Amino acid sequence: MMTRRSSDLHRRPARGAGATLSVIAAAAFTIIAWGSTYTAIRIAVRSFPPVPLALCRFGIGSLTVGALALIAARRTRLTRPTLREAGVLIAAGLFGVAVYSVLVNAGERTVTAGMTGLLLSASPVMVAILAIPVLGERLNGPAWGGVALGFAGTALIAASDASGIRLGPGVPTVLLAALSWAIYSVIQKASLGRFTPLEVIAYSFWAGTAALLPFAHWLVTTWHTATPAACMAVVYLGVVPAGLGYLTWAYMCDHMEASRAAATGYLIAPFGLLVAWLALGEIPRAGAVLGGILTMIGVGVLHWSRPRAVPDGLELPEPL
User: Fold this and answer.
1) How confident is the model over 231-277, as pLDDT tens digits?
2) pLDDT at residue 308 greater than cutoff 70
3) Phi, psi for residue 2 in degrees, rounded to 5
4) Closest residue by Cα to residue 317 from 249, 254, 271, 256
5) Could you tell me the CA-to-CA distances from 288 to 116, 291, 320 in Å, in that order?
6) Which span out of 19-28, 45-54, 154-163 was modeled with the highest average pLDDT?
7) In a 10 Å sphere around its CB, with 0-12 CB exposed, 13-18 middle and 19+ buried, how is residue 310 labelled?
8) Which of 167-171, 213-217, 308-312 has the lowest average pLDDT?
9) CA 109, 117, 139: angle at the middle one, nearest 5?
10) In three state form, how does the secondary structure of the chain look?
11) What is the pTM assigned to this prediction?
12) CB proximity list for 186: less than 8 A, separation 6 or greater
């Protein structure tokens, strides 16, 4: 397993009132950006099929992250991947960008934005299970309790009735998206330790977008018939959650303990419910809310009780 640069292993906590405020602002922006993702997708899928939407979203996101990477390269040269690492990054891009985004887009054609966020919040539980055979990690008693709570909450969400939607094809599709994100998380944790968060994000975005490029003609055709609201939603997804949201998250990881940065993930799904209610009028049923609470408690128990064999600064608190 590769080791990180020494500057990344020893993260510096923010000092002073100004630095503290900047970290709080970064955390608030990250929660807002990522919590609004599924509402924006819900608006976009009204005009865009799943594949063109994924290409447009991460095509714009790739440009945004590329600009951020160029700015970062002025201070520290970007790490060049070896041939083996390039293969890992391609796999990460396929699972974490191409497959994941297409499945989420397909699922949100029938599943509400709020329920999508709640279902995807179970992704860390899937990461923990996959990490046992792949990374050789072990779970103690409390961690297994967190896994059980996470799966129980997910089952309750899936079985709940939201806006007339019962357990149809959309819910399993979203759960497959969560599994795809979990595979991506395990891949990058296992093999990409010497890269910074921004580098992993940039390379993964570029690889995943490249995999979707053969469908560019479909995107061009769809764009001309899409509504202005859907087009604005796609641009927002590419610039804010996929670009600036990652930047503020990386800033948080660099200025505070990784466990505290990851804890912000527990606020993303509830904020997503609020945004979906305000923007789309979606009101989740009590079963979905209760399931979401159980899932987040389970993820919290798992996070705090699971021994970590590797630094966790690269682990995102929530799939996007």
Assistant:
1) 999 999 999 988 888 778 777 767 766 556 666 777 788 888 889 99
2) no
3) -80, 155
4) 249
5) 10, 5, 20
6) 45-54
7) middle
8) 308-312
9) 130
10) CCCCCHHHHCCCCCCHHHHHHHHHHHHHHHHHHHHCHHHHHHHHCCCCCHHHHHHHHHHHHHHHHHHHHHHHHCCCCCCCCCHHHHHHHHHHHHHHHHHHHHHHHHHCCCCCHHHHHHHHCCHHHHHHHHHHHHHCCCCCHHHHHHHHHHHHHHHHHHHCCECCECCCCHHHHHHHHHHHHHHHHHHHHHHCCCCCHHHHHHHHHHHHHHHHHHHHHHHHHHHHHCCHHHHHHHHHHHHHHHHHHHHHHHHHHHHCCHHHHHHCHHHHHHHHHHHHHHHHCCCCCHHHHHHHHHHHHHHHHHHHHCCCCCCCCCCCCCCC
11) 0.82
12) 127, 130, 131, 134, 135
Phi, psi of 248 (to 5 degrees): -70, -35
Q: What is the pLDDT of residues 73-85, one digit of tens each?
A: 778 788 889 998 8
